């Protein structure tokens, strides 16, 4: 171990990430990179129809040729697996589990079985020989079809395609009363399309069953190893201690890899049945057509204002397309849209009804922004339209109604308790940046800018809150710090690395608090054998916020123990010992002892103060006392080509407050990455199904269009910092804030560029076809 | 039908038995165990699998291994020398041009090509980076890294 010039303080420093070098030289270790010698390969059999009863899965031909090692169909799966649990339900919801064995299929691509052979190519060939005999049933595609009178039912026993319903905030009658007496009411129907997470690395796993130990080890591209472990144990009828899940490097997730999928259970079952290693790597078409998706909702929403422009009431009826069945998070994102509808504004009354609906399409669930992007879309489009209809300046209207700094802490009508910050200051700053960036329109190209504020739920969530709502998750995080004999420091945390740089930021925190060089620190994540338990891990803008808070506590306790040990060996009063350059010194006694000498003696038990506390390890559990809220204001400058309907985002800027930033460089990267995903929702991304066959038409990256470099302009990120009052360290999350206000900001900038079409900007993506349709109905388009 | 293909990968000769239909990326990743080259789509769109074949950027998911028989292949594993990151790798690190790192090896190979082809920084962004999908970074950090690296190279003459 060498001395290093990496001297603290580390918290607050923009430093490159410590694990980048191995990724840069090609030593990443993603699931498909793990040595798979001897592994068998699986191919998933999927439903070719959107709705139907499986009459038979005929494997005879595939088995007869002698090259298939295993073929699993619904019969085997029913015999050998149990259902997967769900966590977040809606009142009225009957299904509480996800079946691994499908007797009735409810979307094209639903896994129905598995073929295992010695190579992937072989398994693919054999899968073609399996005959899936299905008696088709009429299908419903889209919300209108599902809610139509006499619609075919996904679950006839329910008597409806409605999954359930919940209301947040002020009662509907009260909202009606205020609306009726308001000076002005804006009403719109606003839609957000279905999108795919599209991580560059699809899902995949390598499962190994060792008959001698009766233990299953699964290397899985997952965001939630502990949850997958519990779910696999349940589904495969194993004890939890028989299952180990390891998340190696993860090539992006964004909410798409947070739960166990039925096909993943099948792969593990194959490994257990065969006593062999079995591998399955999802292909891109499967990822885009059969992995769970995000968004997919429509809202009828109204905003009421008084004569002076004050917001009297906001009300929405949100209808969410849940797809074929509720998955783990289920209706959670739709519910959050209702909960977070108000954003950073004061409304005298506000409320939302959320209705979730089944359709014969892929189930939807968590996607970065989790209901909050949808809420911002509804709210900010309505506000922009209100400004236009009442002849007010949109910025002035927003500033008039924003919650002021001195009003914080503030409780919204739906019960969210905003903690700290200055929302108007962020918006004013974004507006000032907008002024510098406004550019003139041309003859056929119109330009416009818009700025939009938002708040972000981060550090989700106090376990007591989850208990209150009976959401089956825990909200706490745990961290273990070990100082080894040689003085090196290892952090074990339950959160995991998905590209967000958490290894570096946790290393920064512990190096800072302990006062050691950062290259003495290792961060161990993702292995259920060694990682502290975590349900939600790195979701919900919580990994640094909550694991960071736990680490502050564990590290501070460890620091204190190190000082006590050093004082003992230096024979010095504790308060006179100082730590400098990894050396403990007692200036008055002119004695000193290296950090490593103290750790080495500590592990021998020399100098211990308590017989029951010897190992140099400290564990801290942290359950947040409250949600902590980040906030931001985003600005976009767009151009609209009147001839083609094409929109270009020419400039983008954000003013963001996520409390104390451990590494501003990483924080900026998180925000910009989110912005790019917001631009994808705003302009190009959309899952499209054939309304007759139910097949997805967006099966590859040429149909499902992700933003490319040319689609993302330079993004300016300015930070403000109001430390969180509820999180030790003052951290707030920022994993999702980048995506939340983007689509609304872009649409509002388009509205500013071409006010004639503002009223039509009610659905994303704002594709050239959609914009061109709107333009051709107006003066601007005909000119 | 299998046959032997001979490749020189990052300066080292290899021979591998492969089937006619096996793409180059599979041979590199699973036979030679050079897993730095990633596969993101197998459809020729994402660019994660980009390697250089006789100096030209190629999507190794679209090229069959047999087509590369006798060729000189360069992959991400060949960029760093004696354990030191190449300047372009350093620039990506300094500008936070990678997050999950899955797309990074393909991006790096395209950039290596652009540098040798003496493209300008602007051309590199508009013609070369344009062929890569990155879901994490929003490309801003990658573009900054390109500008930084090209500027340093210019200064060095
Ligand atoms: S994997 Fe070859 S281009 Fe995507
Ligand atoms: S860094 Fe994750 S896809 Fe580019």
**pLDDT under 50 segments of chain B (min length 5)?**
none
The radius of gyration over CA of chain B amounts to 16 Å
The averaged pLDDT of chain B comes out at 96
CATH class of the largest domain in chain A: Alpha Beta
Strand order of the largest sheet of chain A: 3-7-1-14-11-12-13
Total helices of chain A: the number is 21
Q: How many strands in all of chain A?
A: 31
For the record, give the distance between the C-alpha atoms at the N and C termini of chain B, rounded to a whole number.
51 Å
Overall average pLDDT of chain A: 96
Q: Largest inter-chain interface?
A: A-B, 53 and 55 residues
The main sheet of chain B comes to: 5 strands, mixed
- Shape descriptor of chain A reads globular
Q: Kindly give the count of domains of chain B.
A: 2
Briefly note the structural class of the backbone of chain B. Answer: alpha+beta
Oligomer class? heterodimer
CATH architecture field of the largest domain in chain A: 2-Layer Sandwich
Overall geometry of chain B comes to globular
Percentage of residues in DSSP E strands of chain A = 25-35%
Question: How many domains comprise the coordinates of chain A?
Answer: 3
Percent of residues in β-strands of chain B: 15-25%
H/E element order of chain B:
EEHEEEHHHH
Q: What can you tell me about this protein's structure?
A:
Chain A is an alpha+beta fold and 783 residues long. Chain A has a 7-stranded mixed β-sheet. In chain A, strands 9, 10, 15, 16, 17 and 18 form a 6-stranded mixed β-sheet that branches. The termini of chain A are far apart. Chain A is built from 21 helices and 31 strands. Chain B is an alpha+beta fold and 157 residues long. Chain B has 2 domains: 2-78, Beta-grasp domain (Ubiquitin-like (UB roll), Roll), CATH 3.10.20.30; 87-156, DNA polymerase, domain 1 (Orthogonal Bundle). Chain B is 34% helix and 17% strand. Chain B is built from 5 helices and 5 strands, in the order ββαβββαααα. Chain B has helices spanning 24-31, 87-94, 104-116, 121-128, 140-156, and strands at 2-9, 12-19, 50-53, 56-59, 72-74. In chain B, α4 packs antiparallel against α5. Chain B is globular. The termini of chain B are far apart. At the A-B interface, α1 and α18 of A face α2, α3 and α5 of B. One FE2/S2 (inorganic) cluster binds next to loops of chain B.
């Amino acid at each position: 171990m060498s001395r290093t010039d990496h001297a603290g303080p580390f918290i607050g420093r923009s430093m490159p990430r410590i694990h980048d070098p191995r990724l840069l030289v090609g030593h990443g270790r993603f699931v498909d990179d793990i040595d798979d010698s001897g592994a068998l390969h699986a191919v998933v059999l999927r439903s070719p129809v959107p709705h139907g009863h499986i009459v038979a899965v005929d494997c005879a031909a595939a088995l007869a040729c002698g090259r298939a090692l295993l073929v699993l169909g619904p019969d085997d799966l029913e015999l050998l697996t149990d259902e997967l649990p769900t966590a977040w339900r809606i009142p009225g919801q009957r299904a509480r589990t996800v079946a691994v064995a499908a007797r009735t299929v409810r979307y094209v691509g639903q896994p129905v079985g598995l073929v295992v052979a010695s190579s992937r190519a072989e398994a693919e060939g054999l899968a073609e020989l399996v005959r899936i005999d299905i008696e088709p049933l009429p299908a419903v595609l889209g919300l209108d079809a599902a809610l139509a009178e006499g619609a075919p039912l996904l679950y006839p026993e329910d008597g409806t395609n409605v999954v359930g319903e919940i209301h947040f905030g002020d009662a509907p009658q009260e909202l009606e009363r205020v609306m009726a007496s308001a000076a002005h009411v804006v009403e719109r129907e606003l839609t957000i399309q279905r999108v795919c997470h599209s991580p560059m690395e699809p899902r995949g796993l390598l499962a190994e069953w060792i008959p001698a130990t009766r233990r299953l080890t699964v290397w899985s591209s997952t965001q939630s190893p502990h949850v997958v472990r519990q779910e696999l144990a349940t589904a495969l009828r194993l004890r939890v201690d028989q299952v180990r899940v390891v998340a190696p490097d993860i090539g992006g997730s964004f909410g798409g890899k947070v739960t166990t999928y039925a096909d993943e259970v099948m792969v593990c079952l194959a490994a257990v049945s065969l006593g062999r290693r079995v591998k399955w790597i999802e292909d891109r078409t499967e990822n885009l057509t059969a992995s769970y998706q995000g968004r997919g909702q429509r809202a009828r929403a109204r905003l009421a204002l008084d004569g002076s422009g004050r917001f009297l009431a906001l009300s929405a009826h949100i209808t969410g397309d849940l797809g074929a069945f509720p998955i783990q998070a289920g209706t959670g994102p739709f519910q959050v849209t209702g909960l977070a509808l108000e954003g950073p504004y004061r409304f005298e009354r506000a409320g939302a009804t959320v209705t979730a609906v089944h359709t014969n399409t892929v189930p939807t669930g968590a996607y970065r922004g989790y209901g909050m992007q949808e809420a911002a879309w509804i709210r900010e489009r309505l506000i922009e339209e209100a400004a236009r209809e009442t002849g007010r300046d949109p910025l002035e209207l927003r500033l008039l109604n924003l919650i002021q700094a001195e009003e914080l802490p503030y409780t919204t009508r739906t019960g969210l308790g905003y903690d700290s910050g200055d929302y108007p200051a962020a918006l004013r700053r974004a507006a000032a940046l907008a002024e510098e960036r406004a550019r003139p329109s041309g003859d056929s190209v119109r330009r416009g800018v818009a700025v939009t504020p938002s708040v972000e739920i981060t550090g989700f969530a106090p376990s007591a809150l989850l208990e209150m709502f009976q959401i089956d998750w825990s909200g706490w995080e745990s961290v273990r710090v070990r100082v080894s004999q040689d003085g090196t420091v290892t952090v074990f945390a339950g959160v995991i690395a998905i590209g967000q740089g958490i290894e570096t930021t946790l290393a920064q925190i512990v190096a800072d608090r302990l006062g050691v060089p950062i290259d003495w620190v290792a961060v161990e994540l993702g292995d259920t054998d060694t990682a502290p338990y975590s349900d939600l891990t790195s979701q919900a803008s919580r990994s640094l916020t909550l694991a960071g808070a736990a680490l502050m506590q564990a590290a501070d306790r460890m620091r204190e123990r190190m000082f006590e040990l050093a004082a003992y060996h230096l024979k010095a009063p504790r308060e006179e010992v100082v730590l400098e350059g990894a050396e403990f010194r007692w200036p008055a006694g002119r004695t000193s002892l290296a950090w490593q000498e103290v750790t080495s003696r500590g592990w021998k038990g020399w100098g211990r103060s308590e017989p029951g506390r010897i190992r140099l390890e400290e564990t801290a559990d942290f359950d947040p006392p409250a949600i902590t809220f980040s906030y931001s204001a985003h600005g976009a400058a767009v151009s609209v080509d009147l001839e083609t309907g094409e929109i270009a985002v020419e400039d983008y800027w954000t003013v963001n407050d996520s409390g104390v930033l451990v590494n501003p460089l990483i924080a900026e990267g998180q925000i910009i990455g989110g912005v790019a995903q917001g631009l994808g929702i705003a302009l190009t991304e959309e899952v499209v199904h054939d309304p007759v066959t139910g097949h997805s038409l967006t099966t590859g990256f040429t149909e499902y269009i992700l933003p490319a470099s040319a689609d993302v302009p330079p993004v300016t990120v300015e930070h403000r910092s109001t430390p969180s009052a509820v999180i030790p360290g003052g951290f707030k999350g920022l994993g999702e804030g980048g995506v939340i206000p983007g689509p609304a900001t872009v649409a509002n900038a388009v509205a500013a560029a071409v006010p004639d079409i503002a009223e039509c900007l009610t659905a994303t993506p704002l594709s050239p076809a959609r914009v061109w349709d709107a333009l051709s109905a107006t003066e601007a388009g005909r000119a | 039908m299998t046959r032997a293909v001979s490749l020189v990968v990052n300066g080292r000769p290899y021979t591998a038995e492969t089937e006619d239909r096996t793409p180059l990326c599979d041979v590199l990743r699973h036979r030679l165990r050079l897993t730095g080259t990633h596969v993101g789509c197998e459809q020729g769109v994402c660019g994660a699998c980009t390697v250089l074949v006789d100096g030209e950027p190629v999507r190794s998911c679209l090229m069959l291994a047999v087509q590369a028989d006798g060729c000189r292949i360069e992959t991400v594993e060949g960029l760093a020398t004696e354990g030191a990151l190449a300047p372009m790798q350093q620039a990506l690190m300094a500008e936070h041009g990678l997050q999950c790192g899955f797309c990074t090896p393909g991006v790096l190979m395209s950039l290596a090509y652009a540098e040798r082809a003496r493209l300008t920084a602007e051309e590199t962004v508009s013609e070369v980076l344009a062929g890569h999908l990155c879901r994490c970074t929003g490309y801003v950090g990658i573009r900054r890294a390109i500008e930084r690296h090209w500027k340093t190279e210019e200064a060095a003459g």
